């Protein structure tokens, strides 16, 4: 296996904003080139490189080394990442509605792109990243990250409101909720909710529902290796297999049968559950 990833839950005060922390080692077998397709999952990733070697990300028609501290935006299509040596990173997976209260920018501003975090993360960010790099253990990096992000929340006086409730509800329902029910439970009109999603998250609620459903598909495919695709479609709430295949290909670029056969060529982060605290 050329990729190893460990995931860690944030503390309760951070959970409305941060899905999880993770630490990854890529190209562990030190191949000349490891190319992986990253599937969209409805979250944003803050990537802090802990090693001198960086991953390479697409820029126009070419690939270039990523910045020391990169925010990967809210993609709804797969993108390719390349590793030309062993790369060690620490990641923070932000809920799209949680980015603004913590870092002061909306997910819509980071839509489908790669941003150098040093340009907007504010005072103390470089020092925080430097301490992450010198920390000897994952537990130390988790403690540093918790302290940094909680200080940001306190400074920004972050409060939860209907967008937080609606986005969390979509994820918990695995995308299987109507727009009317979602708006009613968030105590807002469907029109206002859709406008807020577009302005703050950069996607419509319905498109975010489709991403949440894709995550459930990938959880099922990972947990039940021999599950028939018709059962995956049914368990994920699709009306028929044709709709399931069409939606899967739209977001991943491949049919489910091709994806299963070539699984190791993809990085899939559907948030598997059963994570352990740091």
Tell me the total number of β-strands: 12
Q: What's the CATH class label of one domain?
A: Mainly Beta
Shape: globular
The ordered string of helix (H) and strand (E) elements is: EEEEEEEEEHEHHHHHHHHHEE
Q: Describe the largest sheet.
A: 7 strands, mixed
The secondary-structure class comes to alpha+beta
Spatial strand arrangement across the major sheet: 10-7-4-9-2-1-12
Taking all residues together, what is the mean pLDDT? Answer: 92
Radius of gyration: 19 Å
The third-level CATH topology of one domain is Jelly Rolls
Strand content: 15-25%
> Distance between the terminal alpha carbons, to the nearest Å?
23 Å
Describe the structure.
Helices cover about 40% and strands about 20% of the residues. The chain is an alpha+beta fold. It has a seven-stranded mixed β-sheet with strand order 10-7-4-9-2-1-12, with helices on one face. The longest helix is centred in the middle third of the chain and has 19 residues, at about 140-155. It is globular and about 50 Å long. Mean pLDDT is about 90; it is low at about 275-278.
Give a nutshell description of this structure.
The chain is α+β, with helices and mostly antiparallel strands and 278 residues long. 39% of the residues lie in helices and 21% in strands.
Key attributes of the depicted protein:
21% strand, single chain, 12 strands, alpha+beta, Jelly Rolls, 278 residues, seven-stranded mixed sheet
